[in-house]
């Protein structure tokens, strides 16, 4: 058995080694600071001084006894950032050493050095620890976010060692280098922090800012630069709740950021501070993982202090192995930073190549909320949690952790929330017999070292001052007063201790040139250890600033000065957010109710300066402070002061703590009044969100704008304007509060500034429809129109905005503005020289013209067009865009204005705008082009002549969807209404562009793509096959199946599929039909036919189905065998009330029956097509309806009941031929196309057409001015030439008037067909000279005819005879196909053989 004395010796050695390892990492300076701080903590060094100390409230006072050998605490779990058990043990180990042995709490400050670097002022106990790394990383990143530049940790540590030599910094911290500073910093790793994906949009403009505040103005930048050295950002971590049950703890923690201005009011007045606060608004960005551990540290600090008081300490032997020292290095210094010209952050207006330091800090609030009991559900789970936590830790410690990198923490879900369950084993802190613990050995070493290392020698003092302040200031520090002040401000504990020991105590009471004592400076700079030393030396903790140094001439918030009062250290601690110093003063029983010259207590300073952590500490100390009022003239409470200063966080904490929001100051001002008077709109927004009972913000503001007090009126108007920008419901809230009649009344004010501010508010409100109605109701329109005649441009601009909004909400408002003469007055303002006025006036004109032909005309008559066109060429993108949009509305559907705009030179100006580099200008110009060219062929040609289509095609290559949409719509506006022009535009676009349009997600682009496909494929076999070859059918079928395809686009898709299958005169394209069938379009079409709600879709589907199957026997067989289709659906459509639907359904049936006896028989068997159906159309005044009905009764003559086939055919042909004499171009085109389709149907129909005089009428139209008429008639004549009678008649006409033949050939559609015999005969006769037919006409001798009628006659006879029968007549060959040379001379043998082969060849080609 081992000897107890040996065990004791062994433990003593181990403890000594542990103590040595903890101390050996410190150099001389750090060790001296460490040793001095062990005696200077107000909370942990009670045995070192004899001062009475009040422990902080919360867990430190209230912790109940722990009887278990461990503690278990539940930390909130974040799935994205899980805690690690080893890391938790490491943090507990480091905090235990710092709190139990070195008497130091974790805190960090980045303190500026004389050479612009920053010292990481960390308590020496946390040097080279994970706690120190976490604090420095969070603090550095927070400051980097505030400044906008960042250097990664590894590069930062390396650059800290090299930057002085790179910059050639002299002994006073001035760089002597000639190098480019920015380049050197960038090479060292400096980056714009907004380039980090985590902070990418952090500096984007905040939409909730005050619209009248301009942070980048020269005045604001100069103000900020003047005080930037004294502004810092602090992070305060605190517990929001803590619960205990036996040895189980549950906590919630949070943190807040606050800005600090470390200046007294002699250096900065309160109004200037309020302006600075706007510049100092921080972004609460998070260093996520470290912040999770920061919350844990926030709990562990007061917990360990409480355990120390209970004489319990964490057992290190029951913890996971510590991290290696090389992973725990902490930075002692941070190099300066620099902003590049392209960096996103603009908080600091730094000069080029001028680097700067970072400053700020992190501290923990050791005071906590009252200790509560855990919930009942947690009590039920307590035993299970206790057992599981202990067992898990036991198993974890047994495992080999050598190569393990992750140590997960067990989780438990209680009351729907997940927690990390952490167990810490404890041991007693009491000394044990024959046992020396590590902390005992460490305390012994510290006592020994204190005697050796403290106090500092003169040389050591100078070295410390020199390293901290530089050579020049270090020499000044040899003066006792200066040295003490410098040490107090920087928290140099060892130096201050040494100086105070060597000099009389009277030096500690000396006031500086500002009347401030060392205690004031220590409190302001949060140096609690200096305060403790001063308190131990007998310095009065309530020492006030000397009256001799008070500048009583300055205007301050709070009224006149009080006699016998002054600024105390606690006041400065509360003002500067020095939480540690404030807690120290409170614990040492300094008076927190003392007032300064204005009657302000510490709580008032904390509230006004927004120091949330200090407010919590003071209210915990004495809840009565919450309702304490200043004793000066205004009698303000802390809540009212927070509203005056504009601190939302302070206001929120005070309300949460129980402050009375209904209270008023001596002038009758409540929180709303004060926030408005000092223009703190963020406070007003917060109060609106809270919706506190008895504090109607909107009503109070409306009452303020009725005040006789000029300042109250103007500030309330400014606040209303700002709130309207940031709160969506503000318009209706102001209206409900009765604000509209008041604002309209202010428009009639005799004060120009009030009128301007009232219109500014209404500008933001008039967008709301209800507000617009209320404005009109209260007579705002005539007042606004009257203000248009004023001489104030600001009023012109805002009145134009309001009138535009009113006009945009209602046609009645448009008419009212026009009736009161507003249009002419608005147009008159187009002569202004100010861009803002012009932009808003042009917008107003645009809105007035929307769907209002009268206003469109009025603007044109008032002379607005030339000004708008002039604006297209100005050097202002915004004005260009607005002018384009205004011209678009001015021309939309108004042909006279279209012509006027075109005559005024808009075409050239818009085309130039289309060629601008700026995409927004191009888009707006395209919008104007679309409107001006719509349904106006002449203007379309003007734009096409300027190559506008090429510029619009460029828009289709832009990435933004809306840009491509507008480009597509404008392109199609230039396509016009004629097939030729549409086809031209579609060819300009090309297959790739059309396919891109079809594949787009935009409905507009899909529609244009479909229309282009229709234009290309209509009557063009080449484009039909080309489109299919480029895989154009699959996108169409995809749109056909798409659930998001709109009705208009769906109809166009269906039409496009039909157009791909048929050509001129219902000739078919079997390749296209096959591809469409193969893409499974038929089942989708049938589904649409059966289930779609739109009758128009159904009838278009029926027509397309017929086109896909037309003349294709193979597809027809497959269709009837595989698909479930019945004519009943189409027959039902023929009974529709809509005439167009009825006729289109009949046309679909006609296509199914066209040259198809089997389908004619199937339709006839239904017995449901009666002649009565067509009588209405045949007697209609609408010529198009008559033409379509006539065609259908001819095709369906065998199907229609109630009349015989011959009669129906004769009637139909008669109607069609008669309609050829119409003076309507559309009628002639449709009729000619239908006649061409009838040529190759049943026998005798062509003869009937010819007999009725169709050739004469069709020939007459070859001279038409309408190109479509000429093309349709030429194509019909071409098909008729296969008939011998038509052949003869047309040949006679061409011989009499050869130009008819030329017109026929010129206008014949590319895919139309004409008899080769006809063309050969005419060319032969033209070649040998035409006989003088005029002799017969004028009574001369007849021209002798040969007995042999000639080859052409015999061929025609044979062709006619072959056509007599029920089979389909083969169509003539296309006129552009060149056959073998053959002569028309009947005597030539080759011609005789060709007459037999020609019909077969034509039939084969047609097939």
From TrEMBL:
ANK repeats: 514-546, 565-597, 634-666
Pfam family, one: Ank_2
UniProt keyword Repeat, yes or no: no
SMART domains, sorted: ANK, ARM
Record-linked InterPro entries: ANKAR (IPR043379), Ankyrin_rpt (IPR002110), Ankyrin_rpt-contain_sf (IPR036770), ARM-like (IPR011989), ARM-type_fold (IPR016024), Armadillo (IPR000225)
Residue spans of biased composition, Basic and acidic residues class: 1344-1369
ARM repeats: from-to residues: 779-821, 863-905
Chain spans, region Disordered: 1339-1407
Record keywords, A-Z: ANK repeat
GO biological process: animal organ development
PANTHER family: ANK_REP_REGION DOMAIN-CONTAINING PROTEIN (PTHR46464), ANKYRIN AND ARMADILLO REPEAT-CONTAINING PROTEIN (PTHR46464:SF1)
Name by which UniProt lists this protein: Ankyrin and armadillo repeat-containing protein
Taxonomic source organism: Onychostoma macrolepis
Taxonomy of the source species: Eukaryota, Metazoa, Chordata, Craniata, Vertebrata
């Amino acid at each position: 058995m081992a000897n107890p004395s040996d065990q004791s010796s062994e433990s003593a050695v181990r403890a000594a080694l542990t103590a040595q390892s903890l101390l050996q990492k410190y150099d001389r300076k750090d060790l001296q600071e460490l040793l001095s701080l062990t005696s200077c903590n107000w909370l942990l060094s009670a045995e070192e001084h004899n001062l009475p100390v009040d422990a902080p409230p919360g867990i430190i006072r209230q912790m109940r006894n722990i009887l278990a050998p461990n503690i278990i605490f539940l930390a909130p779990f974040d799935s994205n950032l899980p805690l690690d058990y080893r890391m938790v043990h490491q943090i507990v180990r480091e905090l235990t050493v710092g709190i139990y042995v070195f008497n130091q709490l974790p805190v960090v400050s980045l303190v500026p050095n004389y050479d612009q670097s920053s010292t990481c002022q960390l308590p020496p106990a946390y040097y080279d620890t994970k706690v120190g790394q976490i604090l420095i990383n969070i603090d550095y990143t927070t400051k980097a976010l505030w400044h906008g530049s960042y250097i990664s940790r590894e590069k930062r540590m390396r650059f800290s060692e090299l930057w002085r030599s790179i910059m050639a910094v002299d002994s006073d911290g001035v760089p002597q280098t000639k190098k480019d500073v920015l380049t050197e910093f960038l090479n060292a790793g400096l980056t714009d922090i907004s380039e980090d994906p985590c902070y990418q949009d952090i500096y984007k403009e905040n939409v909730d800012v005050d619209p009248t505040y301009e942070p980048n103005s020269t005045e604001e930048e100069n103000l900020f630069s003047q005080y930037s050295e004294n502004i810092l950002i602090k992070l305060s971590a605190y517990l929001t709740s803590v619960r205990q049950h036996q040895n189980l703890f549950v906590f919630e923690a949070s943190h807040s950021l606050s800005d600090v201005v470390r200046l007294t009011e002699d250096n900065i007045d309160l109004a200037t501070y309020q302006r600075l606060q706007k510049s100092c608004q921080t972004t609460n960005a998070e260093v996520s993982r470290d912040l999770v551990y920061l919350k844990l540290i926030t709990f562990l600090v007061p917990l360990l202090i409480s355990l120390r008081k209970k004489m319990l300490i964490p057992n290190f032997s029951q913890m996971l192995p510590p991290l290696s020292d090389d992973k725990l290095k902490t930075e002692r210094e941070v190099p300066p930073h620099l902003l590049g010209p392209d960096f996103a952050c603009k908080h600091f207006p730094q000069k080029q190549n001028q680097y700067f330091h970072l400053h700020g800090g992190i501290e923990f609030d050791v005071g906590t909320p009252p200790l509560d009991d855990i919930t009942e559900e947690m009590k039920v789970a307590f035993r299970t949690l206790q057992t599981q936590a202990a067992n898990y830790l036991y198993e974890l410690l047994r495992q080999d952790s050598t190569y393990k990198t992750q140590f997960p923490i067990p989780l438990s879900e209680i009351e729907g929330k997940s927690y990390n369950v952490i167990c810490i084993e404890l041991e007693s802190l009491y000394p044990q017999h024959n046992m020396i613990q590590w902390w005992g050995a460490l305390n012994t070493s510290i006592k020994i070292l204190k005697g050796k290392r403290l106090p500092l020698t003169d040389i050591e003092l100078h070295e410390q001052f020199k390293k901290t302040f530089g050579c020049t200031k270090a020499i000044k520090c040899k003066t006792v007063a200066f040295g003490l002040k410098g040490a107090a401000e920087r928290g140099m504990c060892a130096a201050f201790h040494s100086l105070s020991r060597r000099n009389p105590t009277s030096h500690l009471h000396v006031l500086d040139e500002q009347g401030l004592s060392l205690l004031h400076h220590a409190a302001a700079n949060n140096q609690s250890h200096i305060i403790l030393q001063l308190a131990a030396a007998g310095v009065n903790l309530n020492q006030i600033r000397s009256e001799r140094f008070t500048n009583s001439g300055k205007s301050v918030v709070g009224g006149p000065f009080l006699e016998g009062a002054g600024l105390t250290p606690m006041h400065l601690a509360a003002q500067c957010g020095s939480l540690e110093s404030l807690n120290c003063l409170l614990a040492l029983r300094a008076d927190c109710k003392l007032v300064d010259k204005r009657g302000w207590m510490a709580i008032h300073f904390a509230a006004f300066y927004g120091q949330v952590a200090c407010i919590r500490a003071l209210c915990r100390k004495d809840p009565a402070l919450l309702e304490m009022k200043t004793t000066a003239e205004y009698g303000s409470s802390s809540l009212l002061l927070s509203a005056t200063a504009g601190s939302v966080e302070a206001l929120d904490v005070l309300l949460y703590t129980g402050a009375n929001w209904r209270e008023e100051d001596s002038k009758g001002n409540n929180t709303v009044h004060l926030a408005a008077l000092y223009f703190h709109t963020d406070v007003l927004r917060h109060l609106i969100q809270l919706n506190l009972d008895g504090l109607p913000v909107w009503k109070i503001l409306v009452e303020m704008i009725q005040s006789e007090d000029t300042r109250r009126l103007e500030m309330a108007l400014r606040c209303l304007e700002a709130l309207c920008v940031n709160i969506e419901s503000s318009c209706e809230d102001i209206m409900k509060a009765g604000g509209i009649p008041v604002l309209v009344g202010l428009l009639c004010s005799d004060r120009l500034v009030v009128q301007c501010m009232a219109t500014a508010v209404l500008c933001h409100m008039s967008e709301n429809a209800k507000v617009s109605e209320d404005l009109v109701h209260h007579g705002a329109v005539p007042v606004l129109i009257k203000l248009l005649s004023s001489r104030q441009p600001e009023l012109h601009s805002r009145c134009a905005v309001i009138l535009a909004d009113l006009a945009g909400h209602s046609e009645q408002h448009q008419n009212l503005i026009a009736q009161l003469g507003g249009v002419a007055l608005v147009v008159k303002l187009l002569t202004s020289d100010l861009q803002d006025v012009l932009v808003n006036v042009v917008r107003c004109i645009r809105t007035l013209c929307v769907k209002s032909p009268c206003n469109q005309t009025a603007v044109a008559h008032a002379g607005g067009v030339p000004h708008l066109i002039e604006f297209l060429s100005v050097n202002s993108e915004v004005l260009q865009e607005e002018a384009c949009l205004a011209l678009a509305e001015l021309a939309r559907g108004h042909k006279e204005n279209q012509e006027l705009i075109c005559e005024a030179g808009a075409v050239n100006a818009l085309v130039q705008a289309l060629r601008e580099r700026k995409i927004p200008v191009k888009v707006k110009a395209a919008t104007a082009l679309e409107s001006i060219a719509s349904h106006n062929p002449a203007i379309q040609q003007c734009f096409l002549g300027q190559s506008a289509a090429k510029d619009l095609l460029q828009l289709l290559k832009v990435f933004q969807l809306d840009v491509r949409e507008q480009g597509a719509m404008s392109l199609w506006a230039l396509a016009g209404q004629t097939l030729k022009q549409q086809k031209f535009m579609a060819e300009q676009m090309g297959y790739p562009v059309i396919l891109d349009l079809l594949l787009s997600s935009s409905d507009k682009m899909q529609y244009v793509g479909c229309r282009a496909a229709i234009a290309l494929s209509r009557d063009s076999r080449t484009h039909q096959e080309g489109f299919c070859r480029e895989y154009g059918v699959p996108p169409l079928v995809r749109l056909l199946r798409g659930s998001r395809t709109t009705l208009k686009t769906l109809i166009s898709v269906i039409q496009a599929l039909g157009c791909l299958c048929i050509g001129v005169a219902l000739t078919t394209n079997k390749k296209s039909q096959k591809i469409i069938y193969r893409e499974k379009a038929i089942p989708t079409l049938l589904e649409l036919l059966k289930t779609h709600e739109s009758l128009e879709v159904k009838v278009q589907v029926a027509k397309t189905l017929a086109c896909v199957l037309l003349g294709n026997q193979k597809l027809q067989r497959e269709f009837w065998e595989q698909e479930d289709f019945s004519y009943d659906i189409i027959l039902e459509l023929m009974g529709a009330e809509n005439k167009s639907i009825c006729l289109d359904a009949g046309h679909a049936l006609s296509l199914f029956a066209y040259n198809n006896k089997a389908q004619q028989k199937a339709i006839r068997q239904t017995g449901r097509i009666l002649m009565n159906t067509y009588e209405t159309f045949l007697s209609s005044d609408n010529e198009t309806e008559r033409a379509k009905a006539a065609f259908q009764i001819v095709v369906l003559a065998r199907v229609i009941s109630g009349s015989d086939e011959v009669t129906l055919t004769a009637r139909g042909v008669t109607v069609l031929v008669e309609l050829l004499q119409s003076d309507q171009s559309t009628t002639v085109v449709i009729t000619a196309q239908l006649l061409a389709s009838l040529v190759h149907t049943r026998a005798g129909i062509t003869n009937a057409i010819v007999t009725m005089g169709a050739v004469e009428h069709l020939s007459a139209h070859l001279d038409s001015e309408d190109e479509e008429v000429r093309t349709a008639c030429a194509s019909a004549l071409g098909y008729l030439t296969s008939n011998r009678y038509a052949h003869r008649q047309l040949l006679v006409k061409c011989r009499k008037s050869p130009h008819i033949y030329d017109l026929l050939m010129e206008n014949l559609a590319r895919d139309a067909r004409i008899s080769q015999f006809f063309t050969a005969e005419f060319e032969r006769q033209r070649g040998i000279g035409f006989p003088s037919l005029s002799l017969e006409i004028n009574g001369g001798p007849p021209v002798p005819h040969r007995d042999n009628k000639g080859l052409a006659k015999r061929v025609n006879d044979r062709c006619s005879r072959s056509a007599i029968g029920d089979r389909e007549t083969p169509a003539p060959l296309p006129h552009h196909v060149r056959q073998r040379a053959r002569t028309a001379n009947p005597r030539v043998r080759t011609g005789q053989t060709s007459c037999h082969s020609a019909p077969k060849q034509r039939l084969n080609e047609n097939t």
